[in-house]
Amino acid sequence: MRPMQVRLAMTPNRPSPRNAPPVLRRPVVPMLAAPVDAVPEGPGLVHEPKWDGWRCIAFRDTDGVYLQSRAGRNLTGYFPDITRAIGAGIPPGAVLDGELIVWDRGRTNFAQLQRRVTAGRELPQLVRECPAHYVVFDLLADAGGRVILDRPLSQRRACLVRMLAEAPAALTATPQTVDIREVSDWLLYWTVAAGIEGVVSKRQGGRYQPGRRGWAKFRTRMVTEAIVGGVTGSVSDPETVLLGRIDRRGRLRYTGRSHPLARDQRVALAELLSPPPMSGRGAVAHPWPQPLPASWSGQLDRPEPTRYEQVDPAVVVEIAADTAFEHSRWRYRVRYTRIRPDLSPSDVPFLLGEEEGYFGDRS
Q1: Measured between alpha carbons, how far is 325 from 321 in angstroms, rounded to an integer?
Q2: Which end of the chain has a smaller Cβ tally under 10 Å, C or N?
Q3: 174 is in which domain, residue-wise?
Q4: Cis amide leading into 92 (omega within 30)
Q5: More reliable by pLDDT, 196 or 149
């Protein structure tokens, strides 16, 4: 964890600096959430959807708007639609914390956010065709720059709701509930219909602690199957598995990679893996290139090709996968659960085009 976290400065034009209230200075390290295996329950807790977007702290300065990423980078130039909305609807001095998202046919589309960074001259057209929204879940400084980090969440939330009451439609307060039954509905319906990733739970009396994991994050996962097309490490001692699914044309498409396997998982899987067959010309018959292209991984911060060992795509495994699935791939690494020796690759659901949905059932 980086040391600190919030810059405080004395407000200028005050005759007595000792009595001047502090104001937030960027960059501010946002408060974070620790992953949990179940949604926590109990008195004093509130729950919010975990949106599939980019974390963003927005500074409404007297002379404009500044958008800061979770890592402290300047996002302002990529979201002129959001800066206009904040400039028009938020009073100077306010500092907000929330998530940038793009809606596409009623569902969040993470890929459209990424396009903002690489759009270049096409950015104005992209903004018109795929406008962004800023879903706000916290208020760090009120109108006039008054810092309210130490106030309870319930009070910060009340101030935020009042501030957004007359704001443009692109700015909205995230839903919040104390009803665990409503949380269940979110997880059951919204993960598919709206593309939320899970639930963030917070204490109503909690203060905002920059850089601290003071919230709880439950991420929705689904249990499903995939085909092993390759491994890192070696065939005799696999460290992670590279997974695929067959599309409608019968091609094995790369869909993602697992977290590191446990020792017993590595031993059991190695017994079933074998090198890929040879083609008639004496070359290895495998549908994926070697190394795996950097663009396939979807990791913008580590754009290097992946060396791996190709295997005969005949082994089916069970995985627990995140609901974030775009461009026919899981964006995050999946959890390897177990081998499914009772299934063949033809039993694994088809990989469909994005216009058809995520997966189809083989019948």
Answers
A1: 9
A2: C
A3: 24-219
A4: no
A5: 149
- CA dist., res. 351 & res. 245, Å (int): 6
pLDDT digits (tens, 9 = 90+) for 238-268: 999 999 999 888 899 999 999 999 999 999 9
Return the closest-CA partner of residue 358 out of 328, 334, 335.
Answer: 328
Flag whether 301 is in a domain: yes
Per the domain annotation, does 95 fall within a domain? yes
pLDDT tens-place string over residues 210-229: 999 999 999 887 788 899 99
The model's pTM: 0.68
Q: Tell me: do 314 and 246 sit in the same domain.
A: yes
Q: Are 235 and 270 in contact (CB under 8 A)?
A: yes
Rounded distance, CA 327 to CA 176, Å?
30
CA atoms of 170 and 100, how far apart (whole Å) = 10
Tell whether 5 is covered by a domain: no
The gap from C-alpha 47 to its chain's centroid, in whole angstroms, comes to 17
pLDDT at 326 over 90: no
Closest Cα partner for 153 from 170, 179, 182, 174?
A: 174
**Among positive and negative, which fits the CA dihedral 120, 122, 125, 131?**
negative
Torsion, Cα of 59, 63, 65, 70 (10° steps): -40
Instruction: Tell me the CA distances in angstroms from 237 to 25, 170, 232, 305, one per residue in order.
Output: 50, 50, 9, 21
pLDDT band at 328 (very low <50, low <70, confident <90, very high): confident
Q: What are phi and psi of 199, to 5 degrees?
A: -135, 140
Domain count, the chain: 2
As given in the structure block, the two tokens for residue 4 are 């600190």
Number of H helices, E strands in the chain: 8, 22
254 and 114: one domain?
no
Question: Are 195 and 325 found together in one domain?
Answer: no
CB 284 within 8 A of CB 158: no
Helix, coil or strand: residue 362? coil
Given CA atoms 203, 204, 209, 211 in this order, what sign does their dihedral have?
positive
Buried b (16+ CB within 10 A) or exposed e, 1-15: eeeeebeeeeeeeee
| Pairwise CA distance, residues 240 & 260, whole Å | 5
Claim to verify: residue 254 and residue 302 sit in the same structural domain = yes
